[in-house]
Design brief:
By secondary structure, the chain is mainly alpha-helical. It folds into two domains: about 1-15 and about 45-290, no CATH class; about 290-505, no CATH class. It contains 18 helices and four strands. The strands form two sheets. The protein has a two-stranded antiparallel ribbon with strand order 1-2. A two-stranded antiparallel sheet has the order 3-4. The longest helix has about 30 residues, at about 180-215. The chain starts with a helix and ends with a helix.
Length: about 500
């Protein structure tokens, strides 16, 4: 009974078997009775999918309930401490303020949508990856990642933040290596080496704060001597920049596209890379006087990352790798906004955080649209795709709207964040500020031009042989696309007031 329900209703149960060859353009094959053959794992996979969907739904509902109950806060709940550490403060607990509430919305909503989408994508009907094996491991790491991110952004101090920081690194390794081929394993270990290696600097910073102040509290950093404070901020900056895939650490992110596309959407658009941005934002909130020379250094790193990433758009023939370099560039916008905030522009700081929210929803939309394309055609190669707009109209609309949003076109969410960042650069009233404004606008124009080219190539023109049998996926994959399209326009409405609450607007 359960197998039949799962096979007919839940794509996670492995509802379709690809045609012979499993190559680009392959289509599901039907048996003589007119039904798709059921997977022997259908029942177990259906239960796993439903359990994961319920878990992520409860996480979303819990986050919304907590925000409605305590916003704008601050609100703290201590849950325990370690007896061998001489501290009266709870080391474990929950702490909510406008910044953590904002992050909870992004983390739990995107997490729920990714789990729902995975119910269709991780199946035998996926022409690119026709398999429904090892889904327990996949959903375990996705749900653990949601948990780790919730724990990270609701941490009351640096001690708990560091523990969940490292847990996100572990989850990223588990998901990038999921398919188990040589490329996936190499990419996973590369990401682990870079992000965990840089995470050791965060560990050193946390230890220094505790040794010098006897506290792990976020504001304990202000008790340090000026020289030691700068060192601790620099150490945390290294960890954050590696996690956020900024120069020179960015090389792990493009290769991490070996992960299943829904996992790429979550890890590299809405969650893991945003942990680095969150740490920088938390520093900006906690430090009484952010050293301006460190703000200047961050701005240089950010603008170099943005310019390098946009240049690397052009040789890409893989849609996911293109989105990876777009992610790197847009993370640069966020770092730039925070850096200019340290240099005195609150407008830029608010723009950087608004960019975090807009990018999370918009880039998730683009990744999931690309997932729908590879699910239906078996390829992500730009050179093999043409005319998909006629075959996959909803997917095409999702990608086109996502491309417009990521390029900063009005009225989409990322127009407003880019506007604030550029305005903040001009607000600095310096040669460097104007330089940042010009380079930011140039990156945005170049990115828009290239995405326009990609949209025309992939979705218009004659239908390529690879796209001939393509069609929009089922409801489990389309519903997240529709929701994310809406949030690509509307997220500014709730995000900007929360950001202004965070930074005293």
């Amino acid at each position: 009974m359960l197998d039949d329900v799962v096979t007919r209703v839940l794509p996670a149960g492995g509802a379709a078997v690809p045609g012979s060859g499993h190559g680009p353009g392959a289509v599901p094959r039907w048996n003589g009775a007119g039904h798709r053959p059921a997977s022997p794992r259908a029942g177990a996979n259906g239960v796993i999918f439903l359990a994961s969907l319920i878990f992520s739904g409860l996480a979303l509902a819990g986050a919304i309930a907590a925000i409605l109950a305590v916003f704008p806060g601050p609100w703290t709940l201590g849950l325990g401490r370690l007896p061998w550490l001489a501290s009266d403060q709870a080391l474990f607990g929950l702490a909510l303020d406008p910044l953590s509430c904002l992050m909870l919305v992004v983390i739990t909503l995107c997490g729920f949508l990714v789990v729902l989408y995975s119910g269709g994508y991780m199946s035998l009907g996926n022409v690119e990856h026709p398999s429904d094996a090892n889904l327990a491991r996949y959903y375990f790491f996705v749900c653990l990642f949601i948990t780790a991110m919730v724990g990270l952004v609701s941490s009351p101090n640096y001690f708990q933040l560091f523990l969940f920081w490292e847990l996100t690194t572990l989850c990223s390794w588990g998901l990038i290596s999921f398919y188990g081929d040589a490329e996936a394993l190499k990419s996973a270990y590369k990401a682990l080496l870079i992000t965990h290696g840089a995470g050791l600097f965060l560990a050193a910073a946390v230890v220094l704060i505790y040794v010098e102040t006897g506290s792990f509290a976020f504001d304990a950093i202000n008790l340090l001597t000026p020289g030691l404070k700068s060192l601790v901020i620099a150490f945390m900056g290294i960890a954050a920049l590696a996690k956020a895939a900024q120069f020179p650490f960015f090389t792990w992110l493009p290769t991490a596209m070996a992960a299943p596309t829904p996992a790429s959407s979550y890890l590299h658009a809405a969650a893991m890379v945003k942990a680095g941005i969150y740490l920088l934002a938390r520093l900006a909130l906690s430090v009484d006087a952010f050293p301006p020379e460190l703000g200047l250094a961050l701005s240089v790193i950010a603008i170099v990352t943005m310019c390098l990433a946009v240049v690397l758009y052009f040789p890409q023939d893989d849609l996911k790798r293109l989105l990876a370099f777009s992610t790197i560039a847009n993370l640069g916008y966020m770092v730039l906004g925070i850096a200019m905030g340290a240099m005195g522009s609150r407008t830029a700081l608010e723009g950087g955080m608004l960019h975090l929210v807009g990018h999370s929803f918009t880039k998730s939309l683009l990744f999931l649209a690309v997932g729908a394309i590879s699910y239906a055609t078996g390829t992500r190669k730009i050179g093999l795709l043409s005319g998909l707009g006629r075959k996959m109209p909803v997917t095409a609309l999702a990608f086109v709207l996502g491309a417009m949003a990521i390029s900063g076109m009005p009225p989409f969410n990322m127009f407003w964040s880019k506007y604030l960042i550029v305005s903040g650069a001009i607000e600095l009233s310096s040669t460097w500020g104007w330089t940042l404004a010009v380079l930011t606008l140039a990156e945005s124009v170049a990115g828009f031009a290239w995405f326009l080219h990609i949209v025309h190539k992939v979705f218009f023109g004659p239908v390529s042989p690879t796209a001939e049998n393509a069609r929009d996926p089922g409801a489990a994959m389309l519903i997240p696309l529709i929701v994310l399209m809406a949030f690509s326009v509307l997220s500014t409405v709730f995000a900007l007031p929360m950001i202004q609450q965070s930074f005293g607007g």
